[in-house]
Amino acid sequence: MISKKTFAEISALPIMLMITINVFAQNVRTLNPRLFQKIARSDTAVKYQIIKNGSVIKTDTSKVNNIAVPVNEKLVMQYGSKILSASKDSGKVINLPAFSQFAKTGLKVIPEVHIGNIGTRGEKIAYQIAFTENQKFRYIDSLARFCGKLNFLLISATNPKGNLGEPEKIEVHSDEVITIDPDKPAIAHLNEPSTEIHLTGDRVSDSVKIKIITESNATGYTTFIGVEPTLQIFTNDHDLQGFGIDKIPISVRIMGSTSSDSLKVNFTASKGTMTPNALYVKYNAPATVYLRSANSGDCIVSAHTSNMNSNNLVFTYTFPWVFLLASVLGGLIGAFARYYFNAGEKKFSMRPIIGGVLVGFIVAAAYYALGINLIGLDFSAELNEVTVLALSALGAYIGITRK
Question: Is 243 in the same domain as 261?
């Protein structure tokens, strides 16, 4: 015999079951096949994942019209392993809208369809993760690094705007770059504006391998960002003594490619002389040219090939006071040395001293400004105070030789 308490509990079971079913119906929604209309028909079996709080909690296979997703969870269907091109694979991109900032030819799409929540009422929305190569790796002279940019956005045509109930988390990795900022973006809105990722590299060539990891694919998808070859000129000193006295080396190199070719590089200087004014330079093999100063003032040096322009270098030509003083002092030293070694008991005279100073200056100026050796001694000396002094002293002591 059933007690009144047991009978009451049994009688309440249908009511509890109805409440449970009603609650389940409110928290679980069957997908609308229209969300997959470009990817799969409603009667097609697809593999999908259920994601909650950024983690995969279920992986299963079912027909599209039988898939049910809890309101507070997200579904992802992965239908490929390679990144798609929006222009070439438009049949695999759901209702691609037109974007004002990005041409369709440059838009790439992750082969996943995401069904997430939009707004506060749990309405389901379909979208895909897309990105564009906003800037190839380009050498920035002020940073002395190559910089590139990627722009990510969640494309959805059915809802041009809206905030997601849970942000879409992405990770960007690369072993070939130095910094990725941010490397783990979280996108919480549909379509534009995009989320910009900055990448910097030191020594990159041809293209840079990038891996994009999504919540449903920890292995990630591989893409490549191109590298623009760059022509660079550089030097350690930007101040020269003017009037043709000073000459400094300028290095030139072509970076950003592993090519074994050579390119003809032409050099221009707004003031002064470049030697040589053109030469062939191999990729990643630095070469050297020389700049000789002119009178005084600023000079801009640049280089170019048939399809590349270098950075500009700015030089300042100053009046050669240091050269003048060093040559005069050297001439005095050489003249006095010659006088005392050869004068004997002769009466002292300023005439040979002045002559020695003039000869010392002429010898130093001819050597450094014109490249003419007037004393007949073979030597190689870079311009500095000591070498100018020594050369002037030798010129005053030895004198100008005849050839």
Answer: yes
Residues 314, 325 within the same domain: no
Give the per-residue pLDDT at 67.
76
Residues 6 or more apart whose CB falls under 8 angstroms from that of 114 comprise 74, 75, 76, 126, 127, 128, 129, 154, 168
pLDDT, one tens digit per residue, over 230-255 is 999 999 999 999 999 999 999 999 99
pLDDT of residue 13: 33
Residues across the chain:
403
- In one-letter notation, the amino acid at residue 274 is M
Q: Are 258 and 206 in contact (CB under 8 A)?
A: yes
According to the model, what pLDDT value does residue 17 have? 30
Range of the domain at 284: 230-318
The CA distance from 141 to 206, in Å, is 19
Strand partners, 62: 46
Query: Which neighbouring-strand residues pair with 309?
Result: 304
Q: What is the pLDDT of residue 257?
A: 94
β partners of residue 130: 109, 153
| pLDDT on residue 264 | 97
Count the neighbouring beta carbons within 10 Å of the beta carbon of residue 302.
16
SS3 at position 281: strand
CB atoms within 10 A of CB 117: 19
Q: Total domain count for the chain?
A: 3
In contact, 360 and 395? CB cutoff 8 Å: yes
Q: CA 315 to CA 300: how far, in whole Å?
A: 6
- Give burial (CB, 10 Å; 0-12/13-18/19+) of 281: buried
Same domain, 82 and 102: yes
Is the domain of 351 the same as that of 263? no
Query: Is the distance from CB of 94 to CB of 196 less than 8 angstroms?
Result: no
Q: Which residues of 168-183 are buried (b: 16+ CB within 10 A; e: fewer)?
A: bebbbebebbeebeee
Same domain flag for 158 and 76: yes
Bridge partner residues of 290 (DSSP): 249, 275
Give burial (CB, 10 Å; 0-12/13-18/19+) of 108: buried
In a domain, 310, yes or no: yes
Check residue 7 and give its pLDDT. Answer: 36
Q: Which residues of the chain have pLDDT under 70?
A: 1-43, 91-92, 94-105, 119-122, 157-160, 343-348, 379-381, 401-403
